[in-house]
Amino acid sequence: MKDVKAEIISVGTELLLGQIVNTNAAWMSEQLADHGISVYYHTVAGDNFERLARIFQEAETRSDLVFVTGGLGPTEDDLTREAFQHISGLEIVEDQDTLNKVSAYFNNHKREMTPNNRKQAHVFDGANVLRNSVGMAPGMLVEHNNTIWIFMPGVPNEMKAIMSEEVLPTLHELLDLNMVIKSRMLRFIGIGEAQLEHELQQLISEQTNPTIAPLAGVGEVALRLTAKADTSVLAEQLIDQLEEQIKEKVGRYLYGYDERNVEQLVFDLLKQHQLTIASAESLTGGAFASKMVGENGASQVFNGAAVVYQPTSKVNALGISEELIDKHGTVSKQCAEAMALNVKQTYQSKLGISFTGVAGPNSIENQPVGTVFITICDEQDQFQTERFQFSGDRQIIRNRAVKKGFELLYTKLNK
Fold it and tell me: Which superkingdom (predicted)?
């Protein structure tokens, strides 16, 4: 099988407005990868005839397979058929089986079928009509100018049914699909994207199959390894070999795979070591606690949190002395350590962690925006305190502080 270039066009102004998240494209890409089909483009188009026609024309010049979802309904703004007819010249006809299905639906529900509902039975002349087992509007497969076009409804459960039951089996016959594409995400923490790329420069420059794609996140980076092979086993073996080469260079920063994040690993390590933790949070405003209680079984390891945003809250809720705050300030090593110790004692946990700093937009106590102190207080009341200078806006600084707190805990618990 040649390398088939595919693209996905999602139709609907509601997608452009952000009213609906385009989960269809992600799901379809994953399914196609499992069948050895590479997706090169994702496009979202509004319900506009001229723009749709232009997008369809461009897609036909660059792709072997074009998947179109949405715009097949009964209303006036469902323009997918009309736009493709404009570029293809194919006649639109009425599919009797689909019309019977639509009519039966309205009869069974004792509702009058309005004339525009007949539109759901409109298909291109000569198209392979794809059965919709969970809805009314069918899908269609059409070949035009050496490009295979697949049209499906935008409703996710209908699209998935047609894709699984009709499209993929048909493409296997048409294209003799005999390849699979597998990916694995390697997650790293404690190393920046630029440094990671530098350490792996030779591997990245020599990549062919599998490929390496660096992905940056908040406070961590990832590498997506993707292999294409005749079978899933062979693809996984190729990825295993490349992963070993990567681990030889930067394995000390590798903490997890795929969707497994550092927060979940810290949670598991706390359970493994039979430790409990409590948090004292100023600039993070309870964000660390929120991550902890988001895990199933949080009560086994998380005892509680004190959100002490104001200096008076630190004094009244945690018993931090006014003299300490007057002398050192709230954005200080001394205050961070007092917060971690006192919250540990208040909630009778084995560990305490604290966050204090300046998220912005203005400096505090002559400390610049982005200054953050994080302290971990252990079972022996020993402190590990780190000072950071984060960049970015207010929310980014807060998110980075929380992520860094989990990184410090992961490093400490994983020794």
Answer: Bacteria
Task: Write the burial class of residue 305 (CB in 10 Å: 0-12 exposed, 13-18 middle, 19+ buried).
Answer: buried
CATH topology classification for 262-413: Maf protein (3.90.950)
Q: Phi, psi at residue 374, to the nearest 5°?
A: -125, 130
Q: What is the DSSP-derived secondary structure letter of residue 361?
A: S
pLDDT tens by residue, 47-68: 999 999 999 999 999 999 999 9
For 322-348, write each residue's pLDDT tens digit. Answer: 999 999 999 999 999 999 999 999 999
CATH code for 180-257?
Answer: 3.30.70.2860
DSSP per-residue codes, 377-394? E-TTS-EEEEEEE--S-H
CATH number for domain 5-175, candidates 3.30.70.20, 3.40.50.720, 3.40.50.2300, 3.40.980.10: 3.40.980.10
What is the torsion angle, in degrees rounded to the nearest 10, for the CA atoms of residue 375, residue 379, residue 382 and residue 388? -20
List, in order, residues 6 or more apart from 125 with CB less than 8 Å away: 90, 91, 92, 93
The first and second tokens of residue 369, run together, are 């925006």
